[in-house]
Specification:
The structure is a homodimer. Chain A is an alpha/beta fold. Helix content of chain A is 37%, strand content 21%. Chain A has helices at 22-34, 52-58, 64-72, 95-102, 161-176, 195-204, 206-209, 226-235, 247-260, 298-310, 314-330, 344-354; strands at residues 10-18, 42-47, 76-81, 107-113, 126-132, 142-147, 150-160, 182-187, 220-225, 242-245, 270-272, 277-279. Chain A has a ten-stranded mixed β-sheet with strand order 2-1-3-12-11-4-5-10-8-9, with helices on both faces. A two-stranded antiparallel sheet of chain A has the order 6-7. In chain A, helix 5 (161-176) crosses helix 6 and helix 10 runs antiparallel to helix 11 (314-330). The radius of gyration of chain A is 20 Å and the shape is globular. Chains A and B meet through strand 6, strand 7, helix 5, helix 6 and helix 8 of A and strand 6, strand 7, helix 5, helix 6 and helix 8 of B. Bound molecules: 3-isopropylmalic acid (2 copies). One 3-isopropylmalic acid sits between chains B (82, 94, 96-97, 251) and A (190-191, 227).
């Protein structure tokens, strides 16, 4: 069954705030979804546990019950943010990385778009990072040994044809729905000729998989080394439309792109698989500002909108995004990361009013 | 023997233009060094071959004779830039990556500094990327196999205590000579707890290696995840002084930092070991503009200055850098990457006049 076409009586959403400001921004996402009323199926929210805080209390960062609830009860989920211990903590491993793998959410889709001053105008930055979400150095296959000169640590970077193909397929699908229909493959095959070579060749080969149907013929493809891609991102962001990248480059590039639109607090994402989708703001748990009611809720709210789109409720997504754009344009109610003085909860109220 | 203290009758410099604009910018470096006259030892330039162009002609990207000449005859070297094939080419492997390893040039030092409008003023961006230069994914230990779902490629990421310690030591030494004396360790230990954990802990442990002498007590140390470091680099570049990083993060971060100062064409580097140093502009071979005499020679000229500093000729370095800053401030003779209309050779003449 396709995620976007199944008719649903209700929408069960797993809510996983996890750590820090995750607890403060997810209520905004919930409020935005609720504000849509009967234009989407009846909503059921299921609160679920995970995170570093949970680990320090219980010894488990991602409880089995959370994974089970997502797999068996939920249609989709919203994730907050995770904290990272400042030193290695035995037995701890990032629950978000684990969740992406366990739920096979192989695509991390991160649209980075600036809000133009006038509704009709083209935004200065308008790109989507399509990040592979299950492999690369994130397979976490690491070990330490002792050699003649001391400790030696090795990690495996895994790139498979299968994962590269499905993320490539996702990138083409997304590009096809955008006016410019352009893909830039990000890699470092001048050093990693085998792993990044496989990624690049596999993505390039996606259109040919569809035989003569010409499905992706209108999509243009270029490529760029990751170092120079970051450089050009800052100098000529308009050259990018869809950027498809292996996991780690995608992680870095999406943060770089976020700097272009004023704040990480604005950038949403979804972790998408073939049968499940989980919204997640790109920002972290921000322990320095947690608990002060000043975190920007817009990335989480936009993530909820993006999640709706992937479930086939594009109109709902439009309404949430339109309301957010209005609040940003008006510029009167913004959190400190955007130069404003408003509280998280005040921004949520302003957006909800406009939905 | 220490690089910086050996008394020399002459300075033998291996010149390796390699590919593309490497051929156009190295003459600028040579002219700058020659302009210093008798304030430095007599110069001898030895032209050496390497590069992708050389590979396509001969089947070898880094001839044995080049490595031997560097090891047996030269005191130091200047490298231009290498091209990367746009598709995998059997038998080709980057000569710059090989050279760094063969000459044990374990530190890639990349100062990124903006030129302030007035000579007395503090520059807006003033940082140094200290990049480990021999390991990480650059060990190029890659292989491809075939699994149940198609091709699978794996690369090894190697981080050793020894390499992390010496790059850490280099970072502390450099920080000690800067007014702010601050180090930021760049890593991704929330995912790579073992490899990046080893890097971070080893760098942090450097001061303790020196026992009670307190050599590095005045240096402050913080750390940052690579994704958020790139984000903050664009938003708050002033928070950085010395950034020390494993090889690949260092590669990406130095390009990101270069975007802050207006052009990659301004950013120099040295590849430094304990007994050899090689200057190298951070930019690539720029095939799109090669042969037009419009490449910016300033990064190569600054790299020559930086090389001199590492050899103990700080005054010579100052004179070259001072002349470059003047030309930038005057703003009349600049290459197109800086918004000017001048030729490579014209810029070289202007700088040389002021040395
Ligand atoms: C928290 C961390 C493991 C995560 C990642 O690296 O994927 C984060 O940076 C992100 O981008 O979602
Ligand atoms: C050409 C390439 C192998 C090289 C690197 O990745 O080190 C370049 O990007 C650099 O920064 O010197």
């Amino acid at each position: 069954r396709s995620l976007a076409t199944s008719a649903r009586q209700s929408l069960k959403i797993g809510m996983i705030p996890a750590d820090g400001i995750g607890h403060e921004v997810l209520p905004g996402a919930k409020a935005a979804l609720q504000a849509l009323g009967s234009s989407i199926p009846r909503l059921e929210f299921i609160d679920l546990l995970a995170g570093f805080e949970h680990f320090t209390k219980t010894g488990t960062a991602l409880p089995e019950e959370t994974v089970e609830a997502l797999q068996k009860e939920c249609d989709c989920a919203m994730f907050g943010a995770v904290s990272s211990p400042s030193r290695k903590v035995a037995g701890y491993s990032s629950p978000i990385v684990a969740l992406r793998k366990k739920m096979d959410l192989y695509a991390n889709i991160r649209p980075v778009t600036s809000v133009s001053p006038n509704p009709g105008e083209k935004p200065a930055v308008d790109l989507v990072v399509v990040r592979e979400n299950t492999e690369c150095l994130y397979v976490k296959d690491e070990k330490q040994t002792v050699g003649p000169h001391g400790k030696e640590a090795r990690a495996t970077r895994l790139i498979t044809e299968r994962a590269s193909r499905r993320i490539g397929e996702m990138a083409f699908k997304i590009a096809l729905n955008r006016p410019r229909k352009h893909i830039t493959i990000i890699h470092k095959s001048n050093v990693l000729s085998i792993t990044d070579g496989l990624f690049r060749e596999t993505v390039r080969a996606v259109p040919a998989l569809h035989g003569a149907d010409g499905r992706y013929d209108s999509v243009t493809v270029t490529e760029q080394l990751v170092d120079s891609a970051v450089y050009r991102l800052f100098r000529e962001p308009h050259i990018y439309d869809v950027m498809v990248a292996p996991n780690l480059y995608g992680d870095i590039i999406s943060d770089a792109a976020a700097a272009l639109v004023g704040s990480l607090g604005l950038v949403p994402s979804v972790n998408a698989g073939d049968t499940f989708v989980m919204g997640e703001p790109v920002h972290g748990s921000a322990p320095d500002i947690a608990g002060q009611n000043i975190a920007n809720p817009l990335a989480a709210m936009r993530s909820a909108a993006l999640m709706l789109r992937h479930l086939g409720y594009g109109e709902g997504g439009d309404r949430i995004e339109g309301a957010i754009d209005e609040v940003i344009r008006e510029g009167r109610c913004l959190t400190p990361d955007l130069g404003g003085k408003s509280k998280t909860t005040e921004v949520v109220v302003e957006v909800v009013k406009r939905i």
